[in-house]
Amino acid sequence: MVSSLVPVGGGEGPLARCTLCGITAVGPCARCKKPVCGDCCELTEGGATTFAVCLTCVKRGGKSLTAGWLGLLGWLALLMAGCVAIGLVFALLRR
Predict the structure, then answer these.
(1) DSSP code of 24?
(2) What residue spans define the domains of the chain?
(3) Is 12 left (phi over 0), alpha (psi -120 to 50) or beta?
(4) Which of 77, 62, 7 is nearest to 31 (CA)?
C-alpha cells in the first residue's frame, strides 16, 4: 500500500468559497470565472447550454451571453477576412 496516495482529512480537497457570500461555491461565473454559490448566481437565457452568471456580472451587463457570442463571431469573421486577403495576394502574385 502506498501511503502517500491516501488523502488526509476525510478525502476532500480544498473547498472554493463564493466570492459574494463566502459559503461553499458550486462553480465559476460564465463571465468573470469567480467561484459562486447557487444563491449568488442566475442562469443565462438562451444558448445551447445553460451557464451561471454571478449577481455582480448580472448588475453590470445582464445575464445574456449574446455579447460574448457576437465577439466570437466577429473574431472568426476577421480571421476569415485575413485568410481571403492572403489568398488574393497569392492569386495576384501568380499572374
Answers:
(1) B
(2) 14-63, 65-95
(3) beta
(4) 62
Dist. CA 52–CA 25, nearest whole Å: 12
Q: Is residue 31 exposed (0-12), middle (13-18) or buried (19+ Cβ within 10 Å)?
A: buried
Report the alpha-carbon distance of residue 49 to residue 69 in Å, rounded.
13
Q: Where are the alpha helices (DSSP H) in 1-95?
A: 55-61, 66-94
Task: Print pLDDT tens along the chain (95 aa).
Answer: 444 445 555 556 678 889 999 899 998 998 889 999 999 999 887 667 888 889 998 888 777 777 777 889 999 999 999 999 999 999 999 98
Three cell numbers, residue 9: 482529512
The reported pTM is 0.55
